[in-house]
Amino acid sequence: MPMIIHFSHSQLQSLPILSRAVAGCSNHNSVGEIAARETLEQVMADALSKCGSKRSSVRAVCLAVSGVNHPTDQQRILSWLRDIFPSNVRLYVQNDAVAALASGTIGKLHGCVLIAGTGTIAYGFTEDGREARAAGAGPVLGDWGSGYGISAQALTAVIEAHDGRGPSTMLTSSILQTLGLSSAEELIGWTYADPSWARIAALVPVVVSCAEAGDEVANKILLKSAQELASSVKAVVGRLGLCGQDEKGAFPLVMVGGVLEANTKWDVGKEVIKCISKYFPRVLPIRPKVEPAVGAAWLAWNFFMKEYNKELCSR
Amino acid sequence: MPMIIHFSHSQLQSLPILSRAVAGCSNHNSVGEIAARETLEQVMADALSKCGSKRSSVRAVCLAVSGVNHPTDQQRILSWLRDIFPSNVRLYVQNDAVAALASGTIGKLHGCVLIAGTGTIAYGFTEDGREARAAGAGPVLGDWGSGYGISAQALTAVIEAHDGRGPSTMLTSSILQTLGLSSAEELIGWTYADPSWARIAALVPVVVSCAEAGDEVANKILLKSAQELASSVKAVVGRLGLCGQDEKGAFPLVMVGGVLEANTKWDVGKEVIKCISKYFPRVLPIRPKVEPAVGAAWLAWNFFMKEYNKELCSR
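Output (structure tokens, whole complex):
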């Protein structure tokens, strides 16, 4: 969701958000390039129209979207933006994880962000601008700590229990009841009917409540997923040397997404921090108070000011 | 692929196949009901036309197709067939695994079949007609021993190695070279571009050759997959009591599909039998010499003769 924010230095903390617009999926990998572009164009036009602004009054755009996995993705989206905005507008394209990091660090690109919603990714930056990521490769490529991953493991456990390949579990009755199905076999048709990951990931609260009620199978799935998420963070922090040679330095870890939200008893986010603390005792977990789109706006401001100051100095 | 076979008792061993026709996917779960029905109608028409026969000369049809997971699937396909064939034709609809079993037992529904191609399923019958299945629920629901499952684990291992979450592996260079890609990140776009399971399952030979060359990651994936496949067979055999109270009885295990085909060194089928033998020492592995479609034709003949004899007796 793009935000139109008009920043002045003193306003940075009070967030002068002029408008806000929401749209559907803009990951070109999922919905195709044409639909992704249309969605992005439309939602930016909506945001401008809601605050009565025009493209000509825009100074900088930071588009932080999922599906930016490779420099060619970035270049393609930049060229779309170039077609839309006047040539003096500064344009920045980032993976959505970068905006999520910025939402927890007031726009500073330093530290690591862990997102676990429908999908999952860990993304990190050093103060001197090096970056690294882990996971975020989609369900086929093993994002097991994601909401999709957790739910798919729970559905698999139901099938295994039904087959006699795995222990019986409370997940069976809870999931079938949630989906309005009467037998485990019906899950096969249910998953084939609509392979949308978000639809499957929506079962995470059922898994959490089964684990909270003491179900061992659900408990193991959440523990394993927390370890998977921690291992993504560990890989990023290790590659970047984010906490120094001795691995004892402090670094911010921004945590975003439905899977990491606090639950009554079984808190996946807390478990992830517990796993990470074993390796990096001085991790500083941050649950952002603003949404990732605000992070993107902060990034646009910071990138813009950096370039602007450079130009001033070179005059 | 349907076969038109004209049986007489004495000919049963010499397989009087009159014609053979091949078509694309007819799993209604994957391609939708309309496309599945069109594919089946067309390929049956092709098989009849190739041997110069008409629908009116057909006595029995056994359609053994994937996607038959529930009695409602069977009923729906039976009603399609009813619209096509004259009312005196005997019609039988089965999961494709049943025909695969029959292809190894000359049409007798007794024992267990394990299929591991793009997907996987274990299916078994007792002599008194009880049946049970395990797995065969698709990739979301954990068919990890399938060709898709093996390849998805290998792709995940490449991403994990790239991220620093897993050990480096020969799979990286072998898979990237096979797919004509230059970096692990490009796998993300590659998997999103076409989520067809068969396209991913086609990487199994790469995994096998890496394991044969001594790669530990590939080796572990194949071992784990063999254990998964064995656990499906174990579940079916156990539920049906196929080898008696003491689990020491003999039972046929028909093995079908690309994953179970013999390889030079690393033979997944052999490893599966090794795992199963630990539980059921008198398992009798059978690798059928005829294709599953011949099993379906044998089934049609057996079902037809059973009903025909019943009618003769009741006259």
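Chain A has a mean pLDDT of 91.
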